[in-house]
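Private note to self, pasted from the team thread so I don't lose it. Backbone tokens:
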């Protein structure tokens, strides 16, 4: 059974879920409200896949 944790979405602030992808070292964070997705490696911390609608690279660089 997967352990699912309720977290806040870093994109929109709504409730999101974080869980470990079965039989891997991947952690998936997703929000159904804004379609945010972040998959990272639990061992290295590297981002495997990400999707954050509404966030442009320009807005991230200028922070």
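Design output:
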């Amino acid at each position: 059974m997967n352990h699912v944790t309720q977290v806040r979405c870093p994109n929109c602030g709504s409730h999101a879920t974080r869980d470990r992808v079965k039989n891997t070292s991947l952690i998936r964070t997703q929000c159904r409200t804004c379609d945010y997705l972040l998959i990272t490696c639990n061992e290295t911390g590297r981002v495997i896949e990400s999707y954050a609608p509404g966030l442009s690279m320009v807005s991230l660089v200028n922070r």
